[in-house]
Design brief:
Length: 402
């Protein structure tokens, strides 16, 4: 039995035992005060949700383009339907990219059933995928021999590897699947979720009694205490009056959050989770206290995020699409320009500098702002307002002087 198989069985057995314990505790009416972390329960943590949302939002809204090189120049070509509506008419590329990126970032894998193929032959000798219907991670079971997957089982149906679209990230040698950040961050996420659960139980009266009802005149037994408690709770529940003598004292027990230290635990957990999921804390509004990093511009900040965090995931997806969804010398690129969008002033300076350096023509610069090339009338108007900037060709040719 391989190490990967032993790990999977141990994880499955642990999850089953935990579920059984929770069921017994629920039947007994017992609060466990603990949260078992899975791919679904992890989403209850705001930092996990924010990291997954940020990365999936950015990747899914990047235009997907297909190119081929002609005489050493990158030329854009038409996209196949699978890169326009990969899930059919009901699921476009943006939704498909978002869903699959969330699975990649939380579980290290994403799976889809190839339901249609095109007539274009791919590297495996079969038609290229024309439609890929993503499936829930929980519905997928794999059978593997060493590092090679031999079967996929989805919803009780067996599939050959060539029938399934499988992307993975966070890989290690000898493992057929990518590693799951949620699994490796489980302790940190569990600690934060437990602190969150403790706070709920505290303020709902589950962690400690909400108040103390004390008889200051005499000692009472359990039966008398139960009668007094029931009478008091009944009066409070109906909004009525609780009548008692001068020997009862009611004192609310108020929670002091700082004494419980759960706020500190939750804050520290957010920083750790951000590291696991490849998101700077400040980008999910979770900057660490006492640290301060400033950037010259938003563009510089986004560039740092792209290079250090999001860029590798984008490159992996481009490689997977290029190898599995297009044929021959074509390759796929996700356009990151939207992420590096500059403010209007910086953008204008950059375009002007490129025109001055003659690496960009005025018409190309205007096209970047979705403007048509200048017309002869517009050139003439500029000349009237600012004067001609160049010597007329006829004057230069004849050497005429004035």
């Amino acid at each position: 039995m391989g190490a990967w198989t032993r790990l999977r069985r141990a994880f499955t057995r642990s999850a089953q035992l935990s579920s059984a314990e929770d069921l017994l505790d629920a039947r007994r009416g017992k609060r466990t005060g603990k949260v078992h972390v899975t791919g679904e329960t992890a989403l209850r943590h705001s930092a996990v949700w924010a990291c997954l949302r940020l990365r999936a939002d950015l990747v899914s809204t990047m235009p997907v383009d297909v190119y081929r090189r002609v005489n050493g120049i990158q030329v854009e070509v038409a996209k196949p339907p699978v890169l326009v509506t990969p899930g059919g008419a009901r699921v476009g590329m943006i939704e498909w990219l978002y869903s699959s990126q969330v699975d990649l970032d939380r579980a290290g894998n994403t799976f889809g059933i190839i339901t249609e193929r095109s007539g274009v032959i791919g590297t495996d000798g079969r038609g290229l995928p024309a439609r890929i219907e993503l499936v829930a991670l929980a519905d997928v079971t794999i059978r593997a021999t060493g590092s090679e997957i031999t079967k996929f089982v989805i919803g009780g149906t067996e599939y050959e590897p060539w029938e399934i679209w499988h992307e993975k990230q966070y890989t290690v040698a000898g493992m057929p699947l990518g590693l799951s950040p949620v699994a490796y961050a489980a302790w940190t996420i569990e600690e934060s979720l437990n602190a969150q659960q403790f706070a709920r139980d505290w303020f709902a009266g589950g962690a400690i009694p909400m108040a103390e009802l004390k008889n200051t005149g005499k000692t009472i037994d359990q039966g008398q205490a139960r009668v007094a408690r029931d009478n008091f709770e009944a009066a409070v529940a109906t909004g009525g009056l609780f009548v008692h003598g001068n020997d009862w004292e009611y004192k609310p027990i108020q929670a002091v959050a700082s004494q419980s230290a759960f706020l500190e635990a939750r804050q520290q957990g957010i920083s750790d989770i951000a590291r696991y999921f490849g998101c700077p804390g400040d980008m999910i509004d979770a900057a660490v206290s006492g640290s301060s990093i400033t950037y010259a511009s938003m563009t510089q900040r986004n560039l740092q995020f792209l290079i250090m965090h999001l860029g590798p995931a984008i490159t992996r997806r481009e490689d997977a699409f290029s190898r599995g969804l297009v044929s021959g010398p074509r390759f796929v690129k996700l356009n990151t320009d939207a992420l590096l969008r500059m403010d209007p002033e910086a953008r204008a300076r950059t375009i002007a500098a490129q025109i001055t350096a003659r690496t960009l023509t005025p018409s190309e610069g205007r096209a970047l702002d979705d403007r048509a090339p200048l017309t002869e009338e517009q050139y003439a108007e500029f000349d009237r307002l600012f004067g001609a900037r160049t010597t007329p060709p006829s004057t230069a040719a004849t050497g005429a002087t004035t």
